[in-house]
Specification:
Structural class: alpha+beta
Oligomer: single chain
Strand content: 25-35%
Number of domains: 2
CATH architecture of the largest domain: Alpha-Beta Barrel
Shape: globular
CATH topology of the largest domain: TIM Barrel
Radius of gyration: 19 Å
Length: 328
């Protein structure tokens, strides 16, 4: 993976979190995957090896209601800051039969499912419990069994991350039957004025046997985090500050933002073509650009602006939203 410098942060919080003397790098990683410690088909060692061999720099192991030990894995795989394994858990709860799953990243201890009197309280109690164990929460696959709506997720406090893409075959990323897809739900939450960041994951379970659309294979979705070093603290800080983009296959070579607008440089693949959509309030298309460079100049009146870059094979990269009044 090409590591490059990102010239500007997304919001002032990001600038405050950086020391000017620290060079920043891109680190590719996945925050949602499973091993034989829950319902995966491979050992932690085998899972980590797959990601390292496929040019990731970090991985969070998130078995269902189980905290997989990572110290030994890091002693094997993390020599000279080449790879980082972070502990995590998919806190696996439900409400009236609907699955409500919240990932906890970098936990001190296992977080048991907390339950609740309705979907919002169920999510909130699990988010609070994850925070109480020193972890970073993110809401998983809200359309899995159509468990959560945008309005319900909007009401959750102290959570900054939601999955806008999950590589599992039955999570309904694109919605259907009158129910919105995950990206549309993201825009609904953002349009309410709540800042939340979108992540892509593969939710991998199946590392052995056939790689096929109806299996939960790795390599389908990931995040690329900008951080000064490959450490758990730096990666967690980058995620919570929105210093990352999400992807299913498009790589960015540079991403710049200032008080005038957003500029994106795309890393070219041979023969591929690219279209960048700049999106604002309510999911409205603000501007569209073709090619390896795209720029949007703030016009005034936008609540937020984000970008979706799509290549000619249908792979996507999503930048995080910029709330315009915070950067002008």
């Amino acid at each position: 993976m090409k590591r490059i410098h990102l010239a500007f942060a997304f919001v002032p919080l990001c600038l405050l979190a950086m020391r000017p003397s620290e060079p920043m790098q891109w680190y590719k990683g996945n925050t949602h995957t499973h091993t034989i410690n829950s319902d995966g088909d491979s050992t932690p060692d085998e899972v980590v090896r797959w990601y390292k061999e496929h040019n990731y720099q970090f991985l969070v192991l998130t078995d269902h209601n189980f905290l997989t030990e990572v110290e030994g894995l890091n002693s094997i795989f993390a020599a000279r800051e080449k790879f980082l394994v972070i502990n995590g858990e998919e806190v696996t709860d439900s409400f009236e039969g609907s699955p409500i799953h919240i990932n906890g990243l970098d936990l001190r201890e296992v977080v048991p499912p907390q339950g609740g009197s309705d979907p919002v309280e169920t999510v909130q109690r699990n988010v609070d419990a994850i925070r109480g164990m020193g972890g970073v929460p993110h809401i998983n696959h809200p359309n899995f069994f159509w468990a959560l709506t945008a309005d319900q997720m909007r009401q959750v406090r102290n959570n900054k991350l939601i999955e806008i893409y999950n590589g599992a075959p039955a999570v309904h990323n694109h919605g259907g039957g009158g129910s919105p897809g995950l990206e549309a739900m993201w825009d609904e939450i953002l349009s309410s004025g709540k800042l939340i960041y979108g992540i892509a994951v593969d939710d991998a379970h199946h590392f052995k046997g056939e790689f096929a659309p109806d299996r939960l294979n790795p390599g389908r979705g990931w995040v690329v985090v900008r951080a000064p070093r490959l450490s758990t603290a730096a990666i967690m800080e980058g995620l919570e500050a929105g210093r990352f983009y999400a992807s299913t296959g498009v790589s960015l070579s540079d991403l710049r933002m200032d008080g005038q607008g957003i500029e994106i440089d795309i890393q070219e693949k041979s023969t591929f073509k690219y279209t960048t959509h700049f999106i604002g309030d309510g999911g409205r298309l603000l501007s569209k650009a073709h090619g390896l460079k795209a720029r949007y100049r703030f016009q005034g009146g936008e609540r937020y602006v984000r970008a979706r870059v799509v290549d000619s094979m249908g792979y996507v990269a999503w930048t995080q939203p910029v709330f315009v009044d915070q950067v002008r």
